[in-house]
Write a structure and sequence with these properties.
Order of helices and strands: EEHHEEEEE
Shape: globular
Number of strands: 7
CATH architecture: Roll
Oligomer: single chain
Radius of gyration: 12 Å
Helix content: 10-25%
Mean pLDDT: 94
Structural class: alpha+beta
Distance between the termini: 42 Å
Largest sheet: 5 strands, mixed
């Protein structure tokens, strides 16, 4: 069973307007690499010099990976990976 990657509105244009896309991988790093392979335009929005951009928050089954194992967080079959852009304002 693939992983579901939920795509926020600002990034949907890079995945053909889809709300979510399937990807595969045992960790968040591998899932995001698969996502970038399938939808190359999204890679620059997620990564800079191979590192996840600081304004992109990633959740696995509603758990923030910053409090888990970061990009090495496990993504068991059927997991939902949510990409959440940080909101700035004042």
């Amino acid at each position: 069973m693939p992983i579901t990657v939920e795509i926020p509105p600002p990034l949907r244009e890079h995945v053909g307007g889809l709300l979510s896309v399937p990807a595969t991988g045992a960790t968040v790093a591998v899932v995001l690499a698969d996502l970038a392979r399938l939808h190359p335009a999204i890679e620059a929005k997620l990564f800079n010099a191979g590192k996840l951009r600081p304004h992109v928050n990633v959740l696995v089954d509603n758990e923030d990976i910053r409090y888990l194992d970061e990009l090495e967080t496990a993504t068991p079959d059927g997991s939902v990976v949510s990409l959440i852009p940080a909101v700035a304002g004042g």
